[in-house]
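Dataset card, provenance and construction

Sequences and ligand SMILES were collected as paired inputs. For each pair, a complete structure of the chain with the small molecule in place was predicted and serialized as structure tokens. The example below shows a pair involving thiamine diphosphate. Curators did not alter the output after generation; any descriptive sentences attached to a record were derived from the structure itself.
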Amino acid sequence: MSEEEQGRASTAPSPRHAALGLSSDRLLTMYRQMMLSRALDRRMWVLNRQGKAPFVISGQGHEAAQVGCAAALRPGVDWLAPYYRDLAFCIAMGMTARDFMLAVFARSTDPASGGRQMPSHFSLRSARIVTTSSTVATQVLHAAGIAYAARARGLDEVVVTCLGEGSTSKGDWHEALNFAGVHRLPLICLVQDNDYAISVPRRLQMGVDSVADRARGYGMAGASVDGGDALAVYAVAADAVERARSGGGPTLIDAKVARFTSHSSDDDQRRYRPREELEALLRRDPLERLRNYLLDEGLLTDEEDERVQQECSAEVDEAVTAAEAAPQPDAADLERHVFAEAVE
Ligand SMILES: Cc1ncc(C[n+]2csc(CCOP(=O)(O)OP(=O)(O)O)c2C)c(N)n1
Ligand SMILES: [Mg+2]
């Protein structure tokens, strides 16, 4: 190497992930988590069309925001109070493809609820993923309570909760964030802003472009981030985690994401979103963006990428086969956990 080349090499900027303290292996794991989540999600739609999955609510387009935030956490130590689009988040925290499919098929061995919850109402005790209600924003209150308990016990655990931008119109959200601000709780609220609450656009939910503008009103830090960029989300999440652990209090993150599918399998977004808007979504694929980054940085080849896709696809196949073969819940315990039971 000439002296001039040596000089250039030493001043070359380190890749973005390295500058953030993320190893190449870690970044490839994040990519794989996003890929597996996308593959599971797509399969869920197929199963729905086959009449096997009763209801689909999808995280496609949200994966980078979720995996970027999860990468800043310690699975099994920190807590997640998720919402229904958090498939990639839950995968990144330790939920397996099989766990997920057992819930889709409502089997008795489904670790989320033994087949009692709706699909995508995630929970996994071992990964500290807390079950959620279908009533939007209620999980934010649970998260604030868990953060309060962690602080009271002198633990350094951090709690993340997620919801959509439309759900921030609910009083629960205000109450939880106000409480978290007052008590400076180790809480991170990740709002996944996908422009719509079913068919209602953001401009009819709030008078600001970013819900993070409200952080100041709760006495907490706030950040708005491109939720299609896993590295950008990791950077703000890592800051927030550091703040939470060091007693600096909560953070409100607004991650701008794209909702690729209709709200759920029960609506058709072509009826309320203009065609050009739907076409523009295709240029906002977070998976594609991370793939391009990995290819550009020489961390992945096309052949390796193909292999990752095949492995994820095989993992989904295996999960579906296992879940279909798993036993149905016993009708005799239908009312368990629903009504109070007499204790002998
Ligand atoms: C209290 C309550 N009101 C209405 C609903 C029906 N609902 C389910 S999801 C949803 C939209 C939520 O939109 P947003 O918070 O933006 O999240 P997104 O689905 O876009 O990710 C609504 C209105 C509900 N589940 N709970
Ligand atoms: Mg929304």
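Derived descriptions for this record:
Strands lie at 79-81, 159-164, 187-193, 196-197, 200-201, 221-226, 251-256.
The chain is about 45% helix and 10% strand.
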